[in-house]
Write a structure and sequence with these properties.
Among the domains are: 2-64 and 251-335 and 435-481, FAD/NAD(P)-binding domain (3-Layer(bba) Sandwich); 73-124 and 337-432, Polyamine Oxidase, Chain A, domain 2 (Alpha-Beta Complex). 35% of the residues lie in helices and 23% in strands. The chain contains 17 helices and 21 strands. Helix 3 runs parallel beside helix 16 (462-480). The radius of gyration is 24 Å and the shape is globular. The structure holds flavin-adenine dinucleotide and 2-acetamido-2-deoxy-beta-D-glucopyranose (NAG) (3 copies).
Length: 502
């Protein structure tokens, strides 16, 4: 699939080349661009498209709901809590740099004391005192507990972060496979092998994989150690030290990116993308309507673009956006979304359910290690404003977030909480339902039609969407101006195979 797509874009580019020199000089050929979705993926794309194409380019961004998408907060008792994407890794360069660039503050987002809970009770629990924690974890999992940090930090993340240098050099990738390949060819294999098998290869013990790794996969993706190793590794990175969040809410990053990009936000639900003019100088017509089905204004509107960017997952079989008048099948990934329920409860945990006498003895975060437990995790939440809530002394009930793969029954909620003041539930179409059979899709759907969320098939995370967004911006730019040497071409010094021989 990858090679076919490369040749398609290649032909398109050659034809584009001839009209180029002229148009670039008289400055007329500046594209009109439409982006669908204003999450981190769409707004990162808008930000970099503006940088690349300059202030004259028309950039419209369609959003049917909230800017920020899966980065959003929920208000409980006058405090905001992260309801979707909550934690970031210190090596998430885009998210770190955007946060700094916008003058936002980073706050500590580590869980504090955690426990691993199974259907037969608490397996192991960390302590506020690091030495005690280490002793407990070493006792149960042996040296794996040290080895996991080294593996994630010194091998996986080291190779992963190669992408930043390449993107800063303006290099774009046609497919997710090409992108992973330059980070480390092993990463492509990791999308087709389970995290369990790869960790076994790496010499990790069964008990460590089945308990700790499994619990982390359940918490981060609602899935098991049968998840592909690449997304599994991203998930393990989300359990490393130094996790952080944006003070005031992670959604501020996409909001500021949007503002900085000076893109035109259209509050609309895109219903159709029509291939209006094919061949040389292809154009698209994007139809959209009022996202509120109750609204009186149900008229369809349409706008014309030279470049269209999809920045939202399009699950297979969904008819949300129709692709009209294309002469060939578009290479959208085969995607099923995993449903994750985020249940927010303001109240008191039922300590005895977890085998504790007193609530104050309980860890802040509880990860569950087996499928027989009806929830994936439960954690005490801190508001996005962080320390400010400590001043509000009259808050006695804590706010907890429970992740589950289905809506719990009232009985189940009562088992977990001995009392409650408030309960909210968000039903997320959260991330892909991962499998090792998934093909790594192209970012290019058709000539000048791009899919940022192809990247989610490798792994879903804020940083992945930022990387995907910048890649699409670079692809669109390199295609538009015929910079073929900047697409899928990696200089020898950057090629991973060469590096490894040195
Ligand atoms: C519960 C949960 C917890 C998570 N935890 C973390 C975490 O801790 N750390 C982390 O890094 N990641 C986490 N993630 C993953 C992360 O949220 C996503 O990978 C990331 O936010 C995806 O961004 P995006 O821009 O690609 O998509 P989205 O944020 O989903 O943005 C797509 C946007 O497109 C809009 N849209 C869709 N269709 C249309 C249409 N037809 N017309 C107009 N607009 C449309 C949607 O309304 C949406 O706003 C979590 C996700 C969930 C659900
Ligand atoms: C990543 O890089 C290191 C060297 O820095 C290498 O030893 C390792 O095998 C690489 N790949 C993976 C998948 O860890
Ligand atoms: C992030 O910022 C640092 C410091 O300014 C810079 O060196 C790095 O290249 C930036 N990363 C990306 C991906 O732009
Ligand atoms: C709490 O947990 C115990 C033990 O599982 C259970 O018997 C009880 O019904 C639960 N609920 C409350 C409100 O105590």
């Amino acid at each position: 699939m990858a090679s076919m797509w490369k040749s398609v874009t290649y032909v398109v580019l050659i034809t584009g080349l001839f009209s180029l020199t002229e148009s670039q000089e008289d400055g007329e050929e500046i594209p009109r661009i439409g982006i669908i979705g204003a999450g981190v993926g769409g707004t990162t794309t808008a930000y970099y498209l503006r940088q690349l194409f300059g202030k004259e380019a028309v950039i419209d961004i369609f959003e049917q709901d909230r800017v920020g998408g899966r980065a959003r907060s929920i208000n409980i008792d006058d405090f905001e809590y992260e309801a979707g994407a909550a934690v970031l890794h210190p090596l998430n360069e885009y998210m770190v740099n955007f946060t700094n660039m916008f003058g936002l503050e980073r706050i500590d987002a580590s869980e504090g004391r955690i426990g691993f809970f199974g259907s037969d009770g608490m397996k192991v629990e960390t302590s506020t005192w690091t030495a005690v924690t280490m002793a407990k974890l070493l006792w149960r999992y042996g040296y794996d507990i040290v080895k996991i940090q080294n593996w994630v930090q010194d091998s996986l993340l080291k190779n992963f972060t190669r992408i930043y240098k390449l993107q800063n050099e303006g290099i774009a990738f046609t497919t997710v496979e090409d992108m992973l390949q330059v980070m480390d060819p092993e990463f492509v294999r990791y999308t087709h092998t389970t995290i369990m098998d790869v960790m076994k290869e790496q010499g990790f013990s069964d008990i460590f994989i089945k308990e700790m790794v499994h619990a982390i996969m359940r918490n981060n993706y609602g899935q098991s150690v049968a998840i592909p190793a690449f997304v599994g590794a991203v998930s393990m990175a989300g359990a490393q030290p130094g996790l952080w969040a944006v003070k005031g809410g992670n959604k501020q990053v996409p909001e500021k990116l949007l503002k900085k990009s000076k893109a035109n936000l259209i509050n609309g639900k895109v219903t159709q993308i029509l291939l209006q003019k094919d061949g040389e100088g292809v154009t698209y017509e994007v139809s959209y309507k009022n996202p509120d089905p109750e609204s009186k204004d149900q008229e369809e509107n349409a706008r014309e673009y030279d470049i269209v960017v999809i920045a939202t997952p399009l699950p297979t079989g969904q008819t949300n956006i129709k692709f009209e008048d294309f002469t060939q099948h578009l290479p959208l990934p085969d995607l099923k979304l995993h449903e994750t329920i985020a249940l927010f409860v303001q109240g008191y945990l039922n300590a005895s359910y977890f085998g504790y006498e007193n609530l104050k003895d309980m860890p802040n975060g509880i990860f569950t290690v087996d499928e027989d437990v009806f929830f994936n995790s439960v954690g005490k939440q801190r508001p996005v404003s962080f320390k400010e809530h400590l001043k509000k002394k009259d808050v006695e009930e804590e706010v907890y977030k429970v992740f589950l793969n289905r809506v719990p029954t009232e009985q189940e909620v009562r088992l977990l909480f001995s009392g409650r003041k408030d309960l909210r539930l968000i039903n997320w179409k959260a991330y892909p339902q991962y499998s090792t059979n998934m093909e790594l899709p192209p970012f290019v759907l058709y000539d000048r039609l791009y899919n940022v969320n192809a990247v989610e098939i490798a792994a879903s995370a804020l940083e992945m969407s930022a990387i995907g967004g910048r890649n699409v911006a670079l692809l669109a730019y390199n295609h538009w101006y015929g910079h073929l040497d900047k697409i899928d071409e990696v200089s020898e010094s950057d090629a991973p195979s060469v590096k490894q021989e040195l």
